[in-house]
């Protein structure tokens, strides 16, 4: 007696659907409008005599402007270094089990994050009229010379303000590292400093670097407020002094803005490569065969995967 006929157990794979990309005419219309407005602004600005482009070109590479740009960069680097060092210390104090250290760090953050940086810089400029020296009874320290150095006061004012923000950035980066990493380091016999240097900080830097780069760029632009200290040898202050002497504020403002753009562009490129360096390990390269296996298993291509164009996939 013959077995009943059944349908074939093997089925052929259905043909892939031919996906037709959606058309987005609104995007092209919006892009055309934006490009049209940009072209209109450039053409109108080029022909507007109020910008005084000849004066702009005359002072763009003026030695006083170049020196002021150097002072601005130096002030930014020193203030950021002070902010990073002090911010890391405040972050450790904030995470300390000691209630006194926690209270001091919280008070610091409350004061410097709760008041405008413009007000803080004005206070630092008036510090010389408030304190002339420190009298400890057996010794007297004269502060007149230090408090008359406006560059130093500007760096300290910017650095302390930046430290309040860097403390939260560092604390967030450290706390983002799983506690199991530190426990594993302790099990291997590492000390606290070795654990922080070899385990916690390398992983936390991936989170700390992007906002730190943004803070550095923001600090560069905040240096324009130190004229209230008063310190006028930085970029904006020097451009303002020159514009007041020749009664042409618009082209000198354009000169200052151009140099700010140039410096921040260089910093943004450096930030990109620094982030790329510390993001190693967050993405992985696979072959075409591995990519197909991942796509079949997960249903979609993971975002942290790139394909290696090698003969290994054959």
TrEMBL record:
GO biological process: amino acid transport
Keywords of this entry: Amino-acid transport, Cell membrane, Membrane, Transmembrane, Transmembrane helix, Transport
Main location: membrane
One term under GO cellular component: ATP-binding cassette (ABC) transporter complex
SUPFAM superfamilies associated with the record: MetI-like (SSF161098)
An MF annotation (GO) of this entry: transmembrane transporter activity
Cellular localisation: Cell membrane
Membrane topology value: Multi-pass membrane protein
UniProt-listed Gene3D superfamilies: MetI-like
InterPro entries noted in UniProt: AA_ABC_transptr_permease_3TM, ArtM/GltK/GlnP/TcyL/YhdX-like, MetI-like, MetI-like_sf
Superkingdom, taxonomy of origin: Bacteria
Location of the ABC transmembrane type-1 domain: 69-271
Similarity annotation: Belongs to the binding-protein-dependent transport system permease family.
Protein name: Amino acid ABC transporter permease
Organism from which the protein derives: Corynebacterium heidelbergense
Organism placement in taxonomy: Bacteria, Bacillati, Actinomycetota, Actinomycetes, Mycobacteriales
């Amino acid at each position: 007696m013959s077995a009943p006929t059944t349908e074939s157990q093997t089925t052929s794979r259905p043909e892939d659907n031919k996906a037709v990309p959606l058309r987005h005419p609104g995007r092209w219309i919006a892009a055309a409008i934006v490009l049209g407005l940009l072209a209109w602004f450039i053409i109108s600005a080029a022909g507007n005599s109020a910008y005084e482009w000849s004066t702009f070109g005359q002072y763009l590479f003026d030695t006083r402007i170049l020196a002021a740009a150097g002072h601005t960069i130096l002030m930014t680097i020193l203030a950021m270094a002070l902010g990073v060092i002090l911010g890391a210390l405040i972050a450790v104090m904030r995470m300390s089990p000691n209630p006194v250290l926690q209270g001091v760090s919280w008070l610091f953050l409350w004061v410097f994050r709760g008041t405008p940086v413009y007000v803080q810089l004005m206070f630092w400029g008036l510090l010389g009229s408030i304190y002339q020296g420190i009298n400890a009874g057996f010794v007297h320290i004269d502060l007149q010379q230090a408090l008359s150095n406006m560059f130093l006061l500007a760096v300290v004012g910017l650095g302390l303000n930046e430290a309040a923000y860097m403390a939260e950035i560092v604390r967030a980066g450290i706390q983002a590292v799983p506690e199991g990493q530190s426990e594993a380091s302790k099990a291997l016999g590492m000390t606290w400093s070795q654990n922080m240097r070899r385990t916690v900080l390398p992983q936390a830097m991936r989170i700390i670097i992007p906002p730190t780069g943004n803070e550095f760029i923001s600090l560069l632009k905040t240096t324009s407020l130190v004229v209230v200290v008063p310190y006028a040898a930085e970029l904006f202050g020097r451009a303002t002094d020159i514009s007041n002497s020749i009664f042409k504020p618009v082209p000198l403002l354009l000169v200052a803005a151009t140099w700010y753009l140039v410096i921040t562009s260089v910093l943004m490129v450096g930030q990109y490569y620094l982030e790329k360096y510390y993001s190693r390990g967050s993405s992985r390269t696979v072959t075409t065969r591995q990519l197909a296996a991942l796509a079949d298993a997960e249903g979609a291509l993971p975002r942290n995967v790139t394909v290696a164009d090698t003969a290994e996939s054959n």
